[in-house]
Amino acid sequence: MNSTSLAVQSSSASAVVKREPLTSHVATLLSWTILLGGIFTIAVALHMVILSYSPVPYWDGWYQFDTSTNGGNFFSPAWLWQQHNEHRLILPKLFLAVDLRLFQGRQVFLLASIFVIQLLHLSLLSWSMRVLGGWRGTLWRSGTGLAAFCLFCPAQRENLIWGFQTCFVLPPLFASLSFVTLLLYWMESQEHSERPSSKFLVLSVLAALGATYSLANGNVLWPLLVIAAVYLRLRWRAILSFAITGAVSTALYLYHYVRPIQHADPLTSLRYPVTLLEYFAVYFGGSWVHHDIRTTEVVLLAGLGLLTLLLFPALPYVRNFRVFAVQLVLTMAFCAATAMITALGRANFGIGQALATRYQTVALLFWCCFGLLLLGATCTRPQKQFFFLLAQLCVLAVFVRGAVISQHTFGEARRRIFGQNTIAASLATGVYDPEVLLNEANPQMHLILRATDFMKVNHLSLFAGNPRSEFGKPLESVFPVVSFGDCTGALESVLPINELDGPGLRITGWAWDSKHHEVPSSIIITIDGVIRGVGAVGWGRPSLHAMNPKLLSSDVGFVGYVPPPSPGSLVNVYAVLQGKPAEACYLATK
Asked: What domains, with CATH codes, occur in the chain?
């Protein structure tokens, strides 16, 4: 196939869709349903982000503060280049630096950035459907709705609600941008064969560099871009631009590179191809199951059979060289390569590790591209209108499955926010509970304590502004105290925390806001009538929920902290009820 025929076929893609529009009222109705489903998924994802918000850093996010405690400069080249696991996170670290310097490290900027990055990716995909694919009307609505669902599906929970995860959403955006601008450069070279502009070529190279220095998987873009440039029969200048830049970038990336000792040696992993294939299968099959590896493998094997059948109507679409189809195939190759290099380095953690929700951003993008390829292949053939309707119904079935899985996802999000609120209670009261901090925050206690001191001094994260201003004040001066009947609950345990840096008491129990028929917003602990401690509510207690039908939620357990009271002091526990103004309801006395 020569370049002239490719250009003619590419430019006629839009005309094909326009000459042979899909007139079925059913298909039109389904397309609007899919589009609305995608928009609803965005709203659900936003709700999950708001529901799960906490200013407290999580896991790797603690290193953001630890750098400053050691006198490091967030904008120094040395810190930006410093290896983090197997990654060089230059661009994500810039996001962390901006969050700390301009937004007091409260995670809001990071979470908003992740959401905006996904919106930009959705806009790019939707735009390329129209420009590169010529998609309009029914087909464009169906494709945009599917892309919205995949980019905002709650299955990728970690990447949506964990501020550090800008590093996981940036590479897919840069990959799509790199492929789109490569194809735009090719299209322009067909129109101006003698002297095509290099602007799109430069943008493609820069986007690939952005992906490379956002996460390690960005390195796989370079061979894909070289292969694509050769396939498109671009000039040697373009091919060499990708090849030379990729070689130099990879060499720099590997300069003084140290393989993390906890990760598998990729060369050793190659000796176990079956394990790699299982990991690869679970990586993509995890999009449709919830923490069940055996089910995942069964679903994936069945899916591969279905995939083989469904690809037959899509093959002519790719073979005829529709430009947008090439973008989709390149993106699927990027996702598959990402899964494989992840398997090479992480398979030693066990196959179940492939179900980590952070990997779903890549897996869902793969399925998104496959679905778009299928929609495009069936829609351009009016005589196969039935297959397009079937493809639309498959998309809606995926939406339904996503809704079922999201119930578990929201449960996990609620458990995470309870853990974060418990950490906040521990740090705010100065009672450093190792059981909570080491399991929920970070496995290095000295790092947490050092970073906490830094946050207190500089009024960052949960210490920004005037946090816990009620501490040290009489309860009645802060909250109206309501009758006991407005809440119910019990104090179940009081355990001493004997940490030298932060001793105190850990108080656990359960509480229910009977007045508003929901879980209390928090727990307040007083010593001789003065507010000294605080606690988080949201610990799952299904047995209590089963025994007491008046409890409309099982997340009624609480954990609270208070500094050591003086001998003979009276320690009271109150539930802070929902509503405005917030009210305190007496629960128990220690």
From this structure: 3-415 (no CATH), 468-589 (2.60.40)
Distance of alpha carbon 132 from alpha carbon 327, whole angstroms: 9
Provide, rounded to the nearest whole percent, the portion of the chain with pLDDT above 90.
46
Give the helix/strand (H/E) hosting 138: helix 137-152
DSSP sequence for 320-355: TT-HHHHHHHHHHHHHHHHHHHHHHHHGGG-GGGGG
Nearby residues of 346 by Cβ (< 8 Å), 6 or more positions away: 263, 264, 279, 353, 354
Determine the Cα–Cα distance for residues 467 and 500; give it in Å rounded to an integer: 24
- Nearest Cα to 473, choosing from 385, 427, 534, 557? 534
pLDDT tops 60 at residue 308: no
pLDDT band at 547 (very low <50, low <70, confident <90, very high): confident
Asked whether the beta carbons of 147 and 122 are under 8 A apart, the reply is yes
CA distance 135 to 13: 8
Residue partners of 189: CB distance under 8 A and separation at least 6: 196, 234, 235
Residue 13 pLDDT exceeds 50: no
Asked if 436 contacts 427 with a C-beta cutoff of 8 angstroms, the reply is no
Q: What is the per-residue pLDDT for 8?
A: 38
Q: How far apart are CA 151 and CA 118, in angstroms?
A: 6
Whether the CA torsion 127, 130, 132, 135 is positive or negative: it is positive
pLDDT level of residue 495 (50, 70, 90 thresholds): very high
How many C-beta atoms surround the C-beta of residue 450 within 10 A? 16
3-state helix, strand, coil split of the chain in percent (to 5) is 65, 10, 25
Write down the pLDDT at residue 11.
45
Which is nearest to 517 in space by CA: 550, 541, 481?
Answer: 550
